[in-house]
Write a structure and sequence with these properties.
alpha/beta, 260 residues, 2-enoyl-CoA Hydratase, Chain A, domain 1, 11 helices
């Protein structure tokens, strides 16, 4: 049985694994409502004693291509108030008690990378692409990435990714510790489900408490870091470089940045 949360998030129980599916294809661009629905879905999983692990997967070409800054109607794209509201939902996602395995089949870019980092583990296909591309937009990283990414891959690799904005393929992600398993695209969901089931077969109270210890203070740290990120993003959003960055990324060309 599938339960729907909003228009683009559904939850189905497979044994003791809750399969949470994002369906805002083809790119699953983040929005405040979309992430609120996802957080609501995860809260519902937390409240279900039969659900002991989560698989987070998405329909479409991209796992999530982040914010669609070319949109004139989306709250995240059109103003900093929308971004701040998005970060409220990011903190909610980091507060989820149930372990999460993300199945990443395509692009996880910008805030989409941030969403992938919420998970405890990432199972990826070779076609996966990870990128903290904010500097290419003339922007500052957000969604807590400046805290979460170094925690997973180390400060040096995180700095390399954030200061170059480069894209990392599935095999590269595995090598740097950003991904935990690399499998063919046709096996991706099954592999993520197997890993989640391996977690879910253990004593649920022990799993939750162990994870709580491992992630002690993480949600609070993400809240503090997103406050800083939001302040810096507010300044950079008003620059000529940000406007040029949005244009250049949309046009798939290097930005002609002027430093103002």
């Amino acid at each position: 049985m599938k339960t729907q949360f909003g228009d683009h998030v559904s939850v189905a129980l497979n044994g003791n694994v809750a399969v949470v599916t994002l369906n805002r294809g083809p790119h699953n661009f983040v929005s405040v409502d979309f992430m609120r629905d996802l957080a609501d879905a995860c809260d519902a999983v937390d409240a279900n004693p039969d659900a002991r692990a989560i698989v987070l997967q998405s329909e479409g070409k991209s796992f999530s291509a982040g914010a669609d800054f070319s949109s004139s109607t989306d709250a995240v794209a059109s103003g900093m108030a929308g971004i701040n509201a998005l970060y409220v939902e990011a903190v909610r996602l980091y507060s989820v008690a149930t372990p999460i395995v993300a199945a990443v089949q395509g692009a996880a870019i910008g805030a989409g990378l941030g969403l992938a980092l919420v998970a405890d583990f990432r199972v990826v296909s070779p076609e996966a692409r990870f990128s903290a591309n904010f500097v290419k937009l003339g922007f500052h990283p957000g969604f807590g990435i400046t805290y979460a990414l170094p925690r997973i891959v180390g400060e040096q690799k995180a700095a390399l990714l954030m200061l170059t904005g480069r894209r990392v393929k599935g095999d590269e992600a595995l090598a740097m510790g950003l991904a935990d398993e690399l499998v063919p695209a046709e096996d991706l969901r099954a592999a993520a489900l197997r890993l989640a089931a391996e977690i879910a077969e253990n004593a649920p109270l022990a799993v939750v408490e162990t994870r709580k210890t491992l992630r002690e203070g993480l949600a609070a740290a993400i809240k503090a870091r997103t406050d800083i990120e939001h302040t810096k993003q507010s300044v950079l959003r008003a620059t000529e470089d940000f406007q040029e960055g949005v244009r250049s990324v949309a046009e798939r060309r290097p930005g002609n940045f002027v430093g103002r």
